[in-house]
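Sample entry follows:

_____
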Amino acid sequence: MNPQKKIRKMKFEDKYINIKQLCSEELKEIEKIMIDALDLRQEFLPYVAGFLKAPSKRIRPVLSLLFLKAAGFGIDSEILKVLAAVELVHNASLIHDDIIDQSDIRRGVKTISSNFGNKLGVICGDYLLSEAMNILLESDSVEIIKQFINTLKKMCIGEVNQHFESFKIGTIEEYIEKSKNKTAYLFQTALSTPLKCCSASERLIAEASDFGLNFGIAFQMRDDILNLVSDEKLKPSKSDLQEGVYTAAVIYANDAENYSDGVEKARCLLNNYTMRAEKNLSSLEDNVYTLALRELLELLKYE
């Protein structure tokens, strides 16, 4: 590995850990809500609970909590439940992804499907989605439930479209739309729905919604670039290419084998979306939480 890339990676992890500490107590509560929701056979429960508690970024609730705190809102139990639902949806999608990708390892441990088979893996992912919806019913907000359902629909559409577009070099516009469906709409939901619990202004909800969408697109783009250039063992390099998933660098180069010329353009596109996300923070007051959001955007840039 290039020493500069290694230093940058360490810098990302170290800085993110510090930022995450600003929400540490709330994240513990969110995890507790997720685990307490589980009602499974004793033979299966420890594996599912272990999967949910395994070290992860928790980037969606972190972003949402930081935005809420930056805007001056307190964090109550209703907000924590909504964010627990976001994490359950995300983790359900990971379990399903592991089946689709035939992955044996996730977060350094064996996947649910490799332990128990694809059949139980599918059921487990579906079960987590049902628990997410069950938690959301407690919010007593039809609007929030509708947004989650629409987000789930878009996530499924993103996967279906990716399947039928495999090994085809599409357009950048199609790639951005896929990035929204697969990733960014759940970020958008994580940012906007808790503010609806607070009766925040329509303007602030719209700004948070746009921030989540732009951040989510950039987050997916960064992951796609790293998939092509990283040699990290826990996340095999070039797996997208092997599966026929052609991302921005390949699209810009118009070549699935010689895509290096497209990486720079993909990097510029990613950084463009981080700048868009930064503009969505303009109405927030300068405080430690707003600063943390801006630092996260800097960490997201690929240089």
